[in-house]
Design goal:
By secondary structure, the chain is an alpha/beta fold. It has helices at about 15-25, 40-55, 70-75, 90-105, 115-125, 165-170, 180-185, 200-210, 215-225, 230-240, 240-250, 275-285, 285-290, and strands at about 10-15, 60-65, 105-110, 130-135, 150-155, 160-165. The chain has a 6-stranded mixed β-sheet with strand order 3-2-1-4-5-6, with helices on both faces. The protein is elongated and about 75 Å long.
């Protein structure tokens, strides 16, 4: 594992779909002079300016999904089935945001067959910088380590919680890596992943705290004949659904080994082309954001989860 050194350069990786979704729901409906809905655009760019100003990163990348089915859909056709589709005016804003990212000189990445999370996982894994994942989705907590934190949009785009390894262990009683096994056992309704039927959050938590991982749980079950530390009813559920447990673990594990993302310098944040950015923001009617282009850097106030703010479910967004 790479060690985080004081003063090292910062790499911000933004979860495009999650942040846009949060901005869309957080802000009242806004339209530009052409009548296009731009509330999500405004929220996204407002947050981007805040991040640049407060975090002063040397590198930034934004990850997006594509319309193509992913390898998870190919393995499990019901993956994410049942999600509510947003109105077209929501999806139309993605192109506007990408246009603005080009104006800022910020590179965005997307790859058919994979999700934004897989690109994020790969980018931070290949990075030797201080990584900050910006998202409104807790799935990326599994990526947290000594050099990677999650900047979580807790409510809207202004209520922020920063998760490092300590904050995750305080909230869930698990390590970031164990969250993968927890999700595989408990399931994830938002992704239509059922988990091990009959195994709830509390049981999954107790088992992982005692044995460490899904693999270790099943290793124990293979050697335990009688007087097991796992009661018979739970043991039977685990044995009956072993294949599904590991299948779901594969689904919920974020990939970190995608090729073509080794060159970090392509995400170097160049000095702003204020003339070009101002032109695009003016076309959108974002005069208030134009004024923020000259705002001086501001030290960020970091807020972390504390034991008193622990929530009962991994899936409380």
């Amino acid at each position: 594992m790479k060690l985080l050194l004081l003063g090292m350069d910062k790499f911000i990786v933004i979860d495009g779909p999650a942040v846009i979704h949060r901005a869309w729901h957080a802000l009242p409906k806004l339209t530009d002079p052409r009548g296009r809905s731009v509330s999500a655009v405004y929220g996204f760019i407002s947050l981007l300016l805040k991040l640049i100003r407060e975090q002063q990163p040397k590198y930034i990348a934004v990850a997006f999904d594509t319309k193509a089915l992913t390898f998870r859909h190919e393995a499990y056709k019901e993956y994410k089935e049942g999600r509510v589709k947003q109105p077209q005016e929501f999806y139309d804003q993605f192109a506007i945001i990408k246009e603005l990212l080009n104006a800022f000189g910020i590179k965005f990445v997307e790859q058919p067959g994979f999700e934004a999370d897989d690109l994020i996982g790969t980018l931070v894994d290949k990075s030797d910088k201080e990584n900050l994942i910006v998202t409104g989705d807790l799935d990326t907590l599994q990526l947290v380590n000594s050099q990677t934190k999650v900047y979580f949009l807790h409510k809207g785009i202004s209520d922020i919680k920063i998760y490092d390894q300590e904050a995750i262990e305080q909230r869930y009683g698990l390590t970031p890596r164990q969250l993968i096994d927890f999700k595989a056992m408990r399931g994830d309704p938002s992704d239509n992943i059922g988990g091990i039927k009959g195994i709830g959050e509390k049981t999954a938590l107790v088992l992982l705290q005692k044995f460490g991982s899904l693999e270790k749980i099943y290793e124990y079950l293979e050697t335990c004949q009688k007087d097991c530390e796992i009661r018979d009813s739970v043991k039977d559920l685990l044995i009956e659904q072993k294949d599904k447990a590991f299948f779901d673990k594969n689904l919920v594990t974020i990939k970190k080994d995608m090729a073509g993302y080794e060159d970090l310098e392509q995400y170097n944040l160049e000095p702003m082309n204020k003339e070009k950015i101002t032109e695009v923001l003016s076309q959108l009617g974002f005069s208030s954001l134009i004024k923020r282009l000259d705002s001086p850097p501001k030290a960020v106030k970091k807020t972390k989860e504390t034991p008193s703010s622990r929530q009962s479910s991994l899936f409380d967004k």
